[in-house]
Design goal:
Length: 401
Amino acid sequence: IDIKALRGVTGGLVTLDPGYKNTGSCTSAITFLNGEEGILRYRGYSIEDLADKADFLEVAYLLIFGELPTESQLNKFHSDIKENSHVDEDVKKILDGFPKSAHPMGVLSSLTSALIAFNPSSVNIENEDDMYNAIVKIMGKFPVLVAWALRKRTGQPLDYGDDNLGYVENILQMMFKKTNKNYDINPVVVNALDKLLILHADHEQNCSTSTVRIVGSSHAGLYASLSAGINALWGPLHGGANQAVLEMLEAIKEDGGDTKKYMAKAKDKEDPFRLMGFGHRVYKNFDPRARIIKKAADEVLGDLGVEDPILDIAKGLEKEALEDSYFVDRKLYPNVDFYSGIIYRAMGIPVEMFTVMFALGRLPGWIAQWKEMRENKEPIGRPRQIYTGENHRAFKEVSER
Ligand code: ACO
């Protein structure tokens, strides 16, 4: 395709494609997704291999820079991130201003936006060094903001964890460290969180990623674009689904565990209820990430000795949906968020933090997509519309209306 020639075309035929179901907004070399066959690859590597063999930081490097890192590249990346993880003390004052009840997604998007004021050099990215510095800064500071959003909610003093730990281990340490008592790091939990973050790391032009790209296409800075992406992710039809799934499973449990009743509600077109965690815009086959997560959920719950009736309800719903013609005909399979909340819950992460954990995983994908958009010198995103309003009308003075 001659992309440059396409860019010059304006004033042509306007296609109407609500929800952009069949509209490509860009070319991209980052993530390959075949929804019919359930295939997902980052930079050519299958999601199954990456979840099994790589760690989150390697995958972040792969997404952002295009190749798996050598050992020394990975070590440098990690140490640059650690060196840049400090968050300006004044950001704590902003956090202090939020009520304890504030939703952590709102806190995270606000603080990510606030970082712009404390790191003004991240706005004007003119060369590779500027880009690299902006990337390692946000990769360092973002997990701190995530952990602080949780600690604010739980009334714990803010903490930077332990620099000697791995990236993912330290996220857990920062989130759960008690005063004078380190969090007891369980390798099974670290491994499961690592996998979850990898599975969420990118998913081509979904709602939040498209938001990051379109905001960035106006040449707004990286952190401003990321903050917008966090807000897009928050909605229950997108990343907010993981919180919505768990709340739905809890509601079914409280209501006596009758999954059939909720299946019927989901199929009733008069009822706005949807089976959260089912269906996907692109996957019309099993979400490959859901398979990996389901296995991880069994491992974590088994290792921690957690017997969660919610998991049984989830498995029951999945079994019924896979045998129900409404779901089969519409190709509605469990998506990545159907099981992730069960793992987060077993790890002791409160339900309001689930979408924040998704954002933590999606960060390298957003960065990679933003970087690609800028490097490809993409034009400002500006969709057209089909106008359906009034024709020209004569203005009437207030007294005549
Ligand atoms: N429960 C019941 N019916 C559903 C569901 C569901 N979860 N999802 C889709 N349907 C039905 C629709 O009612 C529609 O039926 P119809 O053809 O009889 O009108 C048909 O399936 C197609 O659904 P659309 O909404 O047109 O599909 P779309 O691609 O626009 O939406 C979406 C995809 C938003 C994911 C949808 O399936 C949904 O709302 N799922 C529940 C929320 C969820 O889990 N979101 C997370 C997605 S994954 C992610 O973002 C990480």
